[in-house]
UniProtKB/TrEMBL annotation:
The chain crosses the membrane at residues 12-35, 47-65, 86-107, 127-148. The keyword Transmembrane helix applies. It is a multi-pass membrane protein. The keyword Cytoplasm does not apply. Residues 23-149 form the Tripartite ATP-independent periplasmic transporters DctQ component domain. It comes from Kerstersia gyiorum. Belongs to the TRAP transporter small permease family. This is TRAP transporter small permease protein. Part of the tripartite ATP-independent periplasmic (TRAP) transport system. The complex comprises the extracytoplasmic solute receptor protein and the two transmembrane proteins. GO terms for biological process: C4-dicarboxylate transport. GO terms for molecular function: transmembrane transporter activity. Its main location: membrane. GO terms for cellular component: plasma membrane.
């Protein structure tokens, strides 16, 4: 499962890179057309905005997998390993609940907007809201896997969703700085 998630996240990272490249082409091309030729692509702004939303949600999936979201660990790193593990499990359960809320809300928006078209492109607005569904399903899978790893004891308690903070490092002497 770990390998499957790694391959999935590498594919998502590649999709993010492609979305970013397409956004650059659309926005830069539109700027050149406006200033050099007094014209532009009407669809450019709408499609680049949709690409940005998709890129943020896809990037959030990758960041979750890599434990790259911002967090404060100054309390958790000072706890004993068992308490740290319990805090991690509670945090993962809360994130699972929030992901479920995101899934149900996003799916509702997909259904509500199934018949609504975007003003410029004419694409169904449900496609824009579907990124929330992709995000929620992906995070649910990742979080269930991580929860299973934590509860089964297959994950080292010192590596649970936190990284050591810089203020816990022992101070270096003046001689060791040189």
């Amino acid at each position: 499962m770990n390998r499957v998630l790694d391959v999935y996240c590498r594919a998502l990272s590649a999709i993010c890179a492609l979305l970013m490249a397409a956004m650059v082409v659309l926005v830069f091309g539109n700027v050149v057309l406006r200033y050099a030729f007094s014209t532009g692509w009407l669809i450019s702004e709408e499609i680049s905005r949709w690409m940005f939303v998709w890129m943020v949600f896809i990037g959030s999936i990758v960041a979750l997998r890599e434990n790259a979201h911002l967090g404060t660990d100054m309390v958790v790193v000072r706890l004993p390993a068992g308490v740290r593990r319990a805090c991690t499990v509670v945090a993962q359960l809360i994130m699972l609940y929030i992901s479920w809320l995101m899934l149900s809300g996003s799916w509702s928006q997909v259904e509500i907007n199934a018949g609504t078209e975007a003003p410029v492109s004419g694409l169904p607005l449900s496609f824009l809201y579907f990124c929330g569904v992709v995000f929620a399903v992906s995070t649910l899978l990742i979080l269930f896997y991580e929860l299973w790893m934590n509860l089964s004891g297959r994950r080292d308690s010192s590596a649970l969703m936190v990284q050591e903070c810089a203020d816990l490092e022992p101070p270096r002497s003046a001689a060791s700085r040189d």
